[in-house]
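Re-run requested by the PI after the first attempt was lost when the workstation crashed. Everything re-entered from the original request form. Ligand of interest: 2-acetamido-2-deoxy-beta-D-glucopyranose.
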Amino acid sequence: MAVNGLRAVNSKAIVIMVVVLVMTQRSVQLRSNHPLHGVVDRVNENGGPYIGLVMAYPTEEAALQSSSLFLPSSDVPSVDLSGRRFNIGTIKGVAVIYVMTGEQTLNAGIVVQILLDVFNIEGIVHYGTAGSTNDSLSLGDVSVPNYVAFTGSWKWKEFQSMKGELPELQFGSYNFPSRGDNLLAKVEFTPQQLYSTGQPMQEVFWLPIEPNWFSVAMLLSDINLQRCINNTYCLPETPKVVYGLKGSTADIFLDNAAYREFLFKEFNISTVDEESSAVIMASLTNGVPCIVFRGISDLAGAGKRVKAMSLSSLAAVNALSVAVEFISLIGKVNPIQFH
Ligand SMILES: *[C@@H]1O[C@H](CO)[C@@H](O)[C@H](O)[C@H]1NC(C)=O
Ligand SMILES: *[C@@H]1O[C@H](CO)[C@@H](O)[C@H](O)[C@H]1NC(C)=O
Ligand SMILES: *[C@@H]1O[C@H](CO)[C@@H](O)[C@H](O)[C@H]1NC(C)=O
């Protein structure tokens, strides 16, 4: 980390400290007759506050496990709740609880809520893999979005209905070999209902990443990312960290060139995944900062030649590398967090 980089962070530390002071007022514990009540109290009293580190599926968790960067607590190394294992320890000296949520939005949302309800968590770091819908992103690159939309919420409209106010996907435009009418008509993309502490319900399409955390993450652009899968196969270019693109989430694995292009052209969306928006929404609901790191593992249906090759493992390792440096940095800029 460059010296002037750290200086830039210091000026932001005050803002972050204010955010943290507000957050630490939340009460954290399991109900008093829960069998793990005492264990959870010990985790919160002895080690926290923690960064919550969240990933969705085994390849992403394996990236962390094989890195040996996570050092489990010798007191309580893990707590099992609701079928998930909450792992307690440190990464580069920063107190972390990591958990694999399971795939798609409901799993991700449930687990972030449990993490925030039960443990003393001051922010959520989320990493994983994604498909690219932007031709300028390459396999292995890590996207740090500043906005993520949930694109799986639609109003499915009547055949030959009027144009709505929100963006629409008209199926007839994709008839093959030539466009025309289609009885499936069209879908209109609808925003999500965001409930959060002390605020009326808001309808939001673009969920924002916490700006202070995003600024801290911007300091990590010259991080070394992995380029080779093995001794014989390397990507044509060294992967890079890319900031401020728009991400998207749906309970859909996207492997279709036409819809990929629609998302990019209609919304300027650069990545597709199945959890990020849920992790951000759960964080926003609880007033806790959140940041997302997604490594490009596939092209979401584009590019016939590379299509067959998924680089999930390399993409997960690269996303983790950025997430780990972020955790280390956020631990340094905020001295009152980790005493
Ligand atoms: C290296 O990875 C490539 C791409 O997945 C694969 O085709 C090749 O067999 C691998 N080589 C070795 C030595 O494992
Ligand atoms: C997409 O990006 C282009 C160029 O940055 C901009 O002109 C356009 O308004 C954006 N479209 C949407 C839907 O955000
Ligand atoms: C696509 O990715 C490139 C490279 O990161 C970026 O410069 C460009 O703004 C992105 N396009 C859109 C519409 O976001």
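Saved to the shared folder this time. The pocket of 2-acetamido-2-deoxy-beta-D-glucopyranose (ligand 3) is lined by residues 134, 136-137, 242, 245, 268, 270 (CB under 6 Å).
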